Automatic annotation (TrEMBL):
The keyword DNA-binding applies. Residues 166-263 form the HTH araC/xylS-type domain. Signal peptide: none annotated. GO terms for molecular function: DNA-binding transcription factor activity; transcription cis-regulatory region binding. It holds the Pfam family HTH_18. Keywords: DNA-binding, Transcription, Transcription regulation. This is AraC-like DNA-binding protein. The keyword Kinase does not apply. GO terms for cellular component: cytosol. It comes from the Bacteria.
């Protein structure tokens, strides 16, 4: 087993039936990914990064991202993603020494990733491979993977002190269905409700907004990576009413949950391996 600094990563197989653009998606852990079918477009500094089938890339943590996933008929969009703790990247860059780390986290394309690196990515994404290894070996292999991506141009930018919003998102992600209140959050952060409200306002957000957004991000992850019925997805993120959940989802993302899963036509339901991403990591 690994030490307590980070959990063993679990890959996510993301599948999408209909074309959709998602705004302000926030990952709580950096992601390495490969587009396996279709096209992914990520906005970075108001410039689009385009990832065609077979391309590899890096998505940063705690940065609101705009991403468009485009299926290529007759196949659905599919991406394989591997969340890796930030500390792994930082340790890898320190060991390299010569790497230039951007001043802030940014999305990046890993151009011309060598076949040895692609094979390592595939190995780390195979269910059970990392879990069967001693912790130090797991960390060494993840560091090697981070270095391969860095040498191919995908370098994770420097981290900044986590915002209160980031910490609150991580707390809610541990159990999105829980009946979270401002009082729960204030108690967890050892501050009064008024102080928490004031600090969130200084970050131009609020508790209810973060709660709803975290739940919708989690719901999107479940729709992308599982075959759970929509009613169950709704329950998993704290909605007893599927219709209320669907309306809130469409309000947040501009498309219905069923459009994300099945597309604009009556496609058959997407088959996906049910792999839950750990609560402290994303896509979600």
């Amino acid at each position: 087993m690994l030490d307590d600094v980070f959990p063993i990563p679990a890959r996510a197989l993301i599948r999408q039936g209909g074309r959709a653009c998602f705004y302000r998606l926030v990952n709580t852990s950096p992601l390495l990914f490969q587009v396996q079918s279709g096209t992914k477009i990520v906005m970075a500094d108001d410039k689009p990064l385009r990832f065609e089938t077979g391309a590899y890339g890096l998505l940063p943590d705690h940065q609101p991202l705009t991403m468009e996933n485009i299926p290529k008929a007759p196949q659905k969009y599919q991406t394989l993603a591997l969340p890796i703790p930030r500390q792994v990247f930082e340790d890898a860059y320190t060991r390299m020494g010569s790497i230039v780390v951007p001043s802030r986290p940014v999305s990046a394309n890993a151009s011309s990733l060598p076949k040895e690196a692609a094979a390592l990515f595939d190995y780390c994404c195979q269910p059970g491979n990392l879990a069967s290894l001693p912790g130090p070996i797991v960390k060494a292999r993840l560091m090697e993977l981070a270095i391969w991506f860095a040498l191919s141009g995908a370098v994770l930018g420097q981290s900044h002190s986590p915002r209160l919003e980031d910490r609150l998102r991580q707390m809610i992600e541990t159990d999105p269905a829980f009946d979270w209140t401002l009082a729960h959050a204030a108690g967890a952060f050892n501050m009064s409700e008024a102080t928490l409200r004031r600090k969130l306002a200084a970050e131009k957000t609020g508790f209810s907004e973060i709660l709803s957004d975290t739940r919708m991000n989690r719901a999107l992850g479940l729709i992308h990576t599982t075959t759970l019925p929509m009613a169950q997805v709704a329950l998993e993120v704290g909605y007893d009413s599927p219709s209320q959940f669907s309306a809130r989802f469409k309000e947040r993302f501009g498309v219905s949950p069923r459009h994300v899963r099945s597309g604009p036509e009556n496609f058959e339901r997407i088959g996906a391996e049910v792999e839950q991403i750990r609560a402290d990591i994303l896509a979600r």
